[in-house]
Design brief:
This protein is mainly beta and about 120 residues long. The protein has one domain. It has one helix and nine strands; from the N terminus they run βββββββαββ. Strands 1, 2, 3, 4, 5, 6, 7, 8 and 9 form a nine-stranded mixed sheet that branches. The longest helix is centred in the C-terminal third of the chain and has 4 residues. About 30% of the residues are buried.
Length: about 120
């Protein structure tokens, strides 16, 4: 399990696919995160994102099967063309093509902004 917590400030974490985690928890108050899931993800993983006010930019390799759900009190996630909305979730192209998600991200934000970027 990995856990990041920042009260205020900016944190960038790169190559999380190499971290070999099953559970990742990211929390913050007035925090700005960049989470890059590049690398070689070798197991199914769950990610929980929870910030009060700030932003989280999530960078996902285009070949990774990902499912993202977001519960924002205000606003919608910013999502690039690498993701498609299916019901209440956003999925990457490999999921659309029939692969089961290997990375599940659950986002809960109050006044924050979630951005999903395919890399």
């Amino acid at each position: 399990m990995l856990k990041f917590g920042v009260g205020a400030g900016r944190t960038e974490v790169h190559q999380l696919g190499n971290a070999n985690f099953e559970d990742l928890s990211v929390e913050g108050g007035v925090a700005n995160y960049v989470l890059d899931f590049g690398g070689d993800l070798t197991r199914t993983a769950e990610v929980r994102l929870a910030i009060t006010k700030g932003s989280i930019e999530v960078r996902i390799p285009t070949a990774l099967a990902v499912e993202v759900t977001s519960e924002n009190l205000r606003g919608k996630p910013r999502v690039d063309r690498g993701f498609v909305k299916q019901g209440s979730r956003w999925v990457s192209k490999p999921v659309i093509d029939g692969k089961p998600p290997v990375l599940r991200i659950r986002s809960s934000m109050v006044l924050g902004q979630l951005s999903l970027i395919a890399i």
